[in-house]
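User: Could you check the structure of this?
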Amino acid sequence: MLHHLRLLIICLLSLVPLAIHAEHVSGNSHADHSAGHLQLPLTQESAAELIRSETGDKVLSVDSEKVENETFFRVKVISKQGRVKVYRVASSTGEIVD
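Assistant: Sure, the predicted structure tokens are below.
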């Protein structure tokens, strides 16, 4: 009986890494980056989609700028309240820096 219990515990413990991997692969991890569903490096279109999905605001324009060896996208949006805001997004990481 004790042998069967040990075997069951070992089997269950061996499934934990598979469950963690499946969660990560499916994109359900709570630690997902905001660009998790977008391919890096970002394009102007994917940077606009990232900001649109994060804020719900309407994208007015997207411009690119190069600082040292990094490309940033300046995404200008207008909120439902009529406020205009500009976000800077790093192309290589999808990080919203402003």
